[in-house]
């Protein structure tokens, strides 16, 4: 029979681990140990980076089992073991949406909801083939309301939050706009990353083909010759886009990673074609 102290140590150690072996950061502040229904704890914490361990006993049938929560003290927001409910930093009223850019009660701009994905910020479906027109419309809408120029007469805190939010929206838009950066970001959300430089796992035949394309581009002396290379690269990118989308839909992340590595090369060729055309014009 385990003692209470032994159970506490075991539960807290399990609660601090995630499936990937990483500590959860940012918004995922509450760790659930043993068994827990969504009993909420709404507490305003002082700004101090310390940890507090709370033991809660709840009767389950004939037994009473201890529930342990590891809660970081360091945020003025309110937290819940079920669903996190945020409050406005100024009027303290609950925020209806997530991410919340403005408080619906007092209308002040809010700080970023850390850990929120770019897809959620831009109100886009989590898919490789997202609607770029919808993305652009959302971007313009957010920038019209969040641009720092709109807050020049507001408090220092509101000016700071508007700058941070505006920069975050810019980054989210640029990341999701192009297929390559979008795909790389989707892999990053899954804990995968493509290193810079030559892919050591790339097929030698593929690398030889790239070398020939680059040589042909260097030797191009007319805009027409450079354009033909550019069109070929565009065709390759379109084909890769379909293949990457299919791989991501199937959850085949390794294949998607390999195809995105190829996409990086062809995207680079496309940029070189633009540079070559500017030289020849």
From TrEMBL:
<comment type="subunit">
    <text>Homodimer. Interacts with ISCU (cytoplasmic form); this interaction stabilizes the (Fe-S) clusters on ISCU. Interacts with the CIA complex member CIAO1 (via LYR motif).</text>
</comment>
<dbReference type="GO" id="GO:0044571">
    <property type="term" value="P:[2Fe-2S] cluster assembly"/>
</dbReference>
<dbReference type="InterPro" id="IPR009073">
    <property type="entry name" value="HscB_oligo_C"/>
</dbReference>
<dbReference type="GO" id="GO:0046872">
    <property type="term" value="F:metal ion binding"/>
</dbReference>
<dbReference type="InterPro" id="IPR004640">
    <property type="entry name" value="HscB"/>
</dbReference>
<dbReference type="InterPro" id="IPR036869">
    <property type="entry name" value="J_dom_sf"/>
</dbReference>
<comment type="function">
    <text>Acts as a co-chaperone in iron-sulfur cluster assembly in mitochondria. Required for incorporation of iron-sulfur clusters into SDHB, the iron-sulfur protein subunit of succinate dehydrogenase that is involved in complex II of the mitochondrial electron transport chain. Recruited to SDHB by interaction with SDHAF1 which first binds SDHB and then recruits the iron-sulfur transfer complex formed by HSC20, HSPA9 and ISCU through direct binding to HSC20. Plays an essential role in hematopoiesis.</text>
</comment>
<dbReference type="Pfam" id="PF07743">
    <property type="entry name" value="HSCB_C"/>
</dbReference>
<dbReference type="GO" id="GO:0051259">
    <property type="term" value="P:protein complex oligomerization"/>
</dbReference>
<comment type="subunit">
    <text>Interacts with ISCU and HSPA9 to form an iron-sulfur transfer complex. Interacts with SDHAF1 (via the first LYR motif); the interaction recruits the iron-sulfur transfer complex composed of HSC20, HSPA9 and ISCU and mediates the incorporation of iron-sulfur clusters into SDHB which also interacts with HSC20. Interacts with the cytoplasmic form of ISCU and with CIA complex member CIAO1 (via LYR motif).</text>
</comment>
<keyword id="KW-0496">Mitochondrion</keyword>
<keyword id="KW-0143">Chaperone</keyword>
<dbReference type="GO" id="GO:0005739">
    <property type="term" value="C:mitochondrion"/>
</dbReference>
<keyword id="KW-0963">Cytoplasm</keyword>
<dbReference type="GO" id="GO:0001671">
    <property type="term" value="F:ATPase activator activity"/>
</dbReference>
<comment type="function">
    <text>Acts as a co-chaperone in iron-sulfur cluster assembly in the cytoplasm. Also mediates complex formation between components of the cytosolic iron-sulfur biogenesis pathway and the CIA targeting complex composed of CIAO1, DIPK1B/FAM69B and MMS19 by binding directly to the scaffold protein ISCU and to CIAO1. This facilitates iron-sulfur cluster insertion into a number of cytoplasmic and nuclear proteins including POLD1, ELP3, DPYD and PPAT.</text>
</comment>
<dbReference type="InterPro" id="IPR036386">
    <property type="entry name" value="HscB_C_sf"/>
</dbReference>
<keyword id="KW-0479">Metal-binding</keyword>
<dbReference type="GO" id="GO:0051087">
    <property type="term" value="F:protein-folding chaperone binding"/>
</dbReference>
<comment type="similarity">
    <text>Belongs to the HscB family.</text>
</comment>
<feature type="domain" description="J">
    <location>
        <begin position="117"/>
        <end position="189"/>
    </location>
</feature>
<dbReference type="InterPro" id="IPR001623">
    <property type="entry name" value="DnaJ_domain"/>
</dbReference>
<protein>
    <recommendedName>
        <fullName>Iron-sulfur cluster co-chaperone protein HscB</fullName>
    </recommendedName>
</protein>
<comment type="pathway">
    <text>Cofactor biosynthesis; iron-sulfur cluster biosynthesis.</text>
</comment>
């Amino acid at each position: 029979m385990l003692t209470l102290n032994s159970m506490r140590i075991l539960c807290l150690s399990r609660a601090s681990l995630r499936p990937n072996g990483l500590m959860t950061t940012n918004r995922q502040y509450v760790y659930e140990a043993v068994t827990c229904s969504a009993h909420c704890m709404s507490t305003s914490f002082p700004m101090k980076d310390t940890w507090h361990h709370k033991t809660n006993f709840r009767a389950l049938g004939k037994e009473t089992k201890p529930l342990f929560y590891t809660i970081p003290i360091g945020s003025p927001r309110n937290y819940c073991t079920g669903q996190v409910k945020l409050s406005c930093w100024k009027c303290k009223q609950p925020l209806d949406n997530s991410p919340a850019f403005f408080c619906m009660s007092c209308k002040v701009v809010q700080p970023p909801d850390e850990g929120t994905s770019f897809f959620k910020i831009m109100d886009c479906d989590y898919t490789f083939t997202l609607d770029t027109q919808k993305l652009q419309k959302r971007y313009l809408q957010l920038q019209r309301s969040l641009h720092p120029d709109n807050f020049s007469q507001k408090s220092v805190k509101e000016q700071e939050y508007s700058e941070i939010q505006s920069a975050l929206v810019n980054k989210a838009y640029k990341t999701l706009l192009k297929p390559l950066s979008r795909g790389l970001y989707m892999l990053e959300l899954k804990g995968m990353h493509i290193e810079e430089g030559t892919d050591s796992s790339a097929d030698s035949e593929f690398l030889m083909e790239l070398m020939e394309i680059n040589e042909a581009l260097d030797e191009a002396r007319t805009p027409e010759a450079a354009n033909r290379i550019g069109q070929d690269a565009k065709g390759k990118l379109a084909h890769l886009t379909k293949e990457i989308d299919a791989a991501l839909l199937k959850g085949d992340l390794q294949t998607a990673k390999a195809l995105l590595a190829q996409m990086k090369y062809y995207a680079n060729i496309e940029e070189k074609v633009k540079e070559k055309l500017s030289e020849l014009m």
